[in-house]
């Protein structure tokens, strides 16, 4: 178990397509899942995908409890998803603000399908099939994009809707940017 260094946008490896996992129960895959969970918790993300910490395998983890970066998001219990596939259930799309641990300090308005079904395997190798809407659906689409080498800024339709987190916070939440988050942002940039 380890907190890994994050790859950040501009690193060409984030643009690669990740490989399918052959053996979920292998100690290699199990330890990658542990590293993903540790790193997600350490950096305060709601989801993270293998390539973001340098593992180019189709694995992602997510967890939404009370997250200060997404104060209004619905709760989702900790889960790992291996070899995920997405089926779009409705052509309806909605735009909302996204951030990414690999694009620290920024936000953008991204259109996503509002209703999907996803399939894959959990860390015990059991099949997972779930319908997801709204934030949950958005999160899965964002993370699966990472496995295909796509970062959210590539999906923004109007680049006026892309900018610094602290500058956009007022527009997103109607509230001033919290002081302790400013501190975190300063630490982020002290690389
Ligand atoms: Ni991301």
Whole-number tally of structural domains: 1
Structural class per helix/strand content?
Answer: alpha+beta
Give the overall form.
globular
Mean pLDDT across every amino acid position: 93
The major sheet is characterized as:
5 strands, antiparallel
What would you call the quaternary organization?
Answer: single chain
Number of strands: 8
CATH topology: Peptide Deformylase
Count of alpha and pi helical runs = 4
Strand content: 25-35%
Q: From the 3D coordinates, which CATH architecture would you assign?
A: Alpha-Beta Complex
Strand order of the largest sheet: 1-2-3-6-7
Range of helix content: 25-40%
Radius of gyration, in angstroms, nearest whole number: 16 Å
Distance between the termini: 23 Å
Task: Write down the CATH class.
Answer: Alpha Beta
Q: What bound compounds does this protein have?
A: nickel (II) ion
Helix and strand pattern: HEEEEEEEHEHH
Describe the structure.
- With 191 residues, the protein is of the alpha+beta class.
- It has helices at 27-43, 134-147, 165-173, 179-189, and strands at residues 47-49, 59-64, 76-88, 93-98, 106-113, 115-121, 127-133, 162-164.
- The strands form two sheets. It has a five-stranded antiparallel beta sheet with strand order 1-2-3-6-7.
- The longest helix has 17 residues, at 27-43.
- It is globular, with a radius of gyration of 16 Å.
- The model has no long low-confidence stretch (mean pLDDT 93).
- It binds nickel (II) ion.
- Residues 100-102, 142, 146 line the site of nickel (II) ion.
- Nickel (II) ion binds next to helix 2.
């Amino acid at each position: 178990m380890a907190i890994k260094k994050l790859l950040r946008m501009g690193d060409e490896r984030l643009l690669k397509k990740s490989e399918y996992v052959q053996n979920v129960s292998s100690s290699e895959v199990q330890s990658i899942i542990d590293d993903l969970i540790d790193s997600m918790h350490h950096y305060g993300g709601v989801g993270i995908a293998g390539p973001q910490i340098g593992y180019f395998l189709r694995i992602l983890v997510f967890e939404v409890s009370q997250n200060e970066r997404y104060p209004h998001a619905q709760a989702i219990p900790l889960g790992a998803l291996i070899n995920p596939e997405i089926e779009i259930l409705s052509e309806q799309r909605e735009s909302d603000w996204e951030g990414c641990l690999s694009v620290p300090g920024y936000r953008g308005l991204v259109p996503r399908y509002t209703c999907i079904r996803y399939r894959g395997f959990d860390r015990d190798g059991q099949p997972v099939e779930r319908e997801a809407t709204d934030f949950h659906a958005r999160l899965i689409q964002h993370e699966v994009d990472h496995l295909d080498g796509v970062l959210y800024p590539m999906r923004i339709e109007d680049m006026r809707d892309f900018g610094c987190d602290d500058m956009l916070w007022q527009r997103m939440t109607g509230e001033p940017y919290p002081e302790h988050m400013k501190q975190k942002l300063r630490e982020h940039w002290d690389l």
